[in-house]
Target: Sugar transferase
Amino acid sequence: MTLLGHAVNRMAGTRRSQSARLIPIAAAIGDVLTLALAVFLAMVGRQELTFFNPASDVRDYVSVAAGPLLLGWAAMLLAVGAYARDIFGAGTDEYKLVLKASLLSAGLVGIGCFLTRFPLSRGFFLLAFTIGVPLLLTWRLVFRRSIQQTRKHGHLREGVVIAGNPQHIDDLAAVLRRESWLGYTVLGALVTPGRPLIETPAGIPVLGTTTDTLAAVEGVDADVIIFADGAFSSAHDLRRAMWEIEGHSVRAIIVPSLTDVSSERLKVRPVAGLPLVHVDAPRTVQASHWAKRVFDILGSAGAMLLISPLLLATAVWIKFHDGGPVLFRQTRIGRDGRPFSCYKFRSMVTDAEQLRIDLETNHERSSVMFKMVDDPRVTRPGRLIRRLSIDELPQLWNVLRGQMSLVGPRPPLPHEVARYSTDMSRRLRVRPGLTGLWQVSGRSDLSWDETVRLDLYYVDNWSMVQDLNILARTVSAVLSSRGAY
Model:
């Protein structure tokens, strides 16, 4: 690389790093404004709501307490780490820290008023935290979505150098490119000594070896270095690399060889300087728990009632388009390999199944699942309802009957299951889902191996919180129409 190229990279890296560092500042400003609104609404509510006992001196005490409450709550957010750079944009730590700071603030205010015998209005106290906590969480959610959209458009990004063996580097880089909302731009790679490479098989430039960590990171002005599997042959080499970047504005991320295990199943317990990782058993049984079934029944029944006008309008459109049947019924494989009739709005011509055989013969496919970007069998109404996933809505009836779940792996076809390996068969340990990790992560844009990996991750790491998160992400996935064809 030329001197001019190094200079340009360093200038671009400085701008990139500076813009990313503005995120915690913007979050703090938004938090203060949100808390100010919550305190103001609590003050107004205490005065206006008639079920609180009126008192002549309440206004004075509330006015005195409002300022310290606002500042103390904001200070508590700072104290618990709610403005650390690595919590924004992904994960649940951000929301956990906001809840933690809010609970601590409420507790300290209550204890402080008790010890000092300050007559703070209980109505004001209750309203402040009842309004403030949901407002804070809503603001942080909106802020996160804006960060993710900004990153997708190439802003607020951080430069990344990946260290490891070439295959793991390419796999990790592919994920970072696909999930652009994470905000990482891959600048180059570091390989183990003895590999004279100019670039990895996927075309990522090799900046050097893992023995030159600091020089390579500073050369491209990276913000983050990711140590993937195979980066070092011993723990001493990793420790030495961490010593090298000490004192520099570079964050380190380690991707362990232990993958596809959720953090809820991991417990780190240091013993004699060794970070022993205890892994809980897979949660396949819990994924079929009665609580999930109750949630499915209530959710599917409520959803069908709520969207009944949409269901009726879609049925009328399909019927009047070509006079064919409204619903398409297809045999799918459910939990424990049991077949069931899966319902969808018909989005293809009436002889679609016969035409599929010809299409499979004339088009190469490298996976179990057959999908085409421009499928000639799709009708005019079908293009819209497939893009918005409206064609899947009749499967709410399958959910209500217990054949499917609101969230789970994609329901496979019998001929797909016939080609399953032993690992793939674990997908059949739970009910298939109306939506799932496959849908919110790219749907048909994903390779077959990625689809299987996501489904197995769901089966092994099920939790109700994850189900709720997937349902929330489904809305944005449907609206963006990513991978829908």
Summary: The chain has 16 helices and eleven strands.
